[in-house]
Design brief:
single chain, about 240 residues, 2 domains, five-stranded mixed beta sheet, 7 strands, disordered N terminus
Length: about 240
């Protein structure tokens, strides 16, 4: 038996880099008003090379259809375009790739586009596009992308795979998708509400505010107190006029 034949039967070293899997390229028109970004490909998406083609992707299509968004007219892409082993971000270095490299490539990709709104579906994508974290904290909010991307409008929401695990969240996602549809009509940030804080208002200021409440055709009001406390150590009125 030759040396070559012997070495062919030896196991690979644990630190040996694996070949990159199939790249999952973006799909959809580059001039689309809506850009949709996910975190990383599923096994099915890695095999087809197309984003959002797994069962969770089909769920996303259904939810988009419910609010009147045609997915075929959206530009769909992923932050990480090569599926790491077992889909684990912690093993991304095994395919000679890195999260930092993926972030830089995505930012350059989005900077080359001119959408009216970016829909972000995932914690990693949210951080890559806005520098923020926590989908649950920011979902449904209109955010600004990083300056290097051009300060485009961004709305994050729960990913389709999360919805499959927590289907009750689909109602919130539908609400967020409807906002995406409405925001896709224009690129400006004109719909972001202007907030005014009144701390320790005087009695006359409080009366004027109550008078304004009574004359408003619609009013949303929330009274905040200490969590779990019966006493009112402070009162915060959160309201909006329409």
């Amino acid at each position: 038996m030759t040396i070559i034949q012997l070495t062919q039967n030896l196991p690979l070293k644990s630190n040996q880099k694996k070949l990159k899997p199939r790249k999952v390229n973006p799909i959809g028109p580059r001039n689309s008003k809506i850009v949709i970004i996910g975190d990383l490909p599923s096994k099915e998406e890695s095999e087809t090379g197309i984003p959002f083609t797994s069962s969770s992707g089909h769920l996303l299509t259904q939810l988009l259809n419910q609010v009147g968004i045609d997915r075929s007219k959206c530009y769909c892409t992923l932050l990480i375009k090569y599926r790491p082993p077992s889909g684990l971000i912690s093993r991304i270095d095994e395919i000679d790739y890195s999260l930092l490299q993926a972030q830089e490539e995505l930012r350059a990709e989005i900077a080359s586009l001119n959408p009216n709104i970016i829909l972000v579906l995932g914690e990693l994508s949210l951080e890559a596009i806005t520098g923020l974290n926590s989908i649950s904290k920011h979902r449904g909010s209109i955010l600004k992308s990083l300056p290097s991307i051009g300060e485009k409008k961004v709305i994050p929401t729960f990913s389709p795979s999360y919805i499959q695990r927590m289907y009750r969240s689909s109602a919130l996602v539908l609400f967020d998708l409807l906002k995406v549809k409405n925001e896709s009509v224009f690129s400006s940030f004109k719909s972001i509400p202007k907030r005014e804080f009144k701390i320790n208002p005087s009695f006359s200021e409080s009366l004027a505010l109550l008078d304004r409440f009574s004359k408003s055709p619609a009013l949303a009001l929330d009274i905040e107190t200490d969590r779990g406390a019966c006493r009112l150590s402070f009162i915060c009125w959160v309201y909006s006029f329409h």
